[in-house]
Amino acid sequence: MRELIDMWGNTRMVVLTAMSASLYAAILIPFKVLPIIPGVTEFRPANAVPVVCSFLFGPAGAWGAAIGNVIGDFFGGMGPGDFFGFFANFLYGLIPYKAWEALTDADPVPRNASSWIAFVAVVLLAAAVCALTVGWGLNLLGFVPFSLLGNIVLVNNFLVAVVLTPFLLAVIYPRVKRGHLLYRDILARPHAHSRAVRRVGLALVVVAAVAGMVLGNALSLGTVQPPFLADLGGGGTTRALEVGVGLLPVLAVLGLGLLLL
Q1: Nearest to residue 142, comparing CAs of 39, 238, 243?
Q2: Among 75, 113, 167, 258, which residue's Cβ finds the most Cβ atoms within 10 Å?
Q3: Which residues, in sequence order, are bridge partners of residue 42?
Q4: Is the CB of residue 120 less than 8 Å from the CB of residue 157?
């Protein structure tokens, strides 16, 4: 994870961050007129951008996704939920390149059955981590139930990215690679851990994403009631307290996994 800080000392990576953020925001803003949950989220064809930029520019893609989402939110109305949107989109741009390089040294352009399976799994994981983060955060604030927002973000992110990203990468990735603008060409030491350690981290992230989505829905719908919260009165119609506290162990596992990736 050190490259997330080190990259700010590299002019090219800063420029790539600005480019990623600008592109993401430019495609997000026109679709603010197609809300799915008014004031919270909308149909987002731009969701392919963080995944593409992640595979191309690594940490610059992650920061670009976070910053670009804030710029897009500015045109749709800012609020406290944007804090969680920043981190959710940061992780959405972080997971693809981290997970892919924990699995293989191959280019992230699917060409056969095994690479397609890995690619779809990585995109699904990124979408789930983003959905878990923003769903937990906005439910904690009492804005939108996790069972509504988390599932919408998961489906919206995954479907758009898994359909558009392979075609975009097939066209763009070879050209960026020839220009030596991949983050691996720019950063001297992109990974601090061995691949074995990164795969352990990836396994923890997968467990946290799956457990978080399942448990988040169960807590939000009231099918699971943490016994230690039974006497605290709950969190109203959104069950903010149950979801907010109940998912903390899962988020701790997610954090540990990210540190190892």
Answers
A1: 238
A2: 258
A3: 35
A4: no
Q: What is the tens place of the pLDDT at every residue in 48-107?
A: 999 999 999 999 999 999 999 999 878 766 667 788 999 999 999 999 999 999 999 899
The half-sphere exposure of 50 on its side-chain side, counting CA atoms within 13 A, is 33
Check if the beta carbon of residue 107 is closer than 8 Å to that of residue 63.
no
Distance CA 157, CA 172 (A): 20
Reply yes or no on whether the pLDDT at 233 is more than 80: no
In the chain, domain spans:
3-260
Question: Whose structure tokens read 């540990």?
Answer: 256
d(CA 173, CA 179): 10
Q: Helix, strand, coil % (nearest 5) of the chain?
A: 75, 0, 20
Among 55, 57, 30, smallest CA distance to 44 is for 30
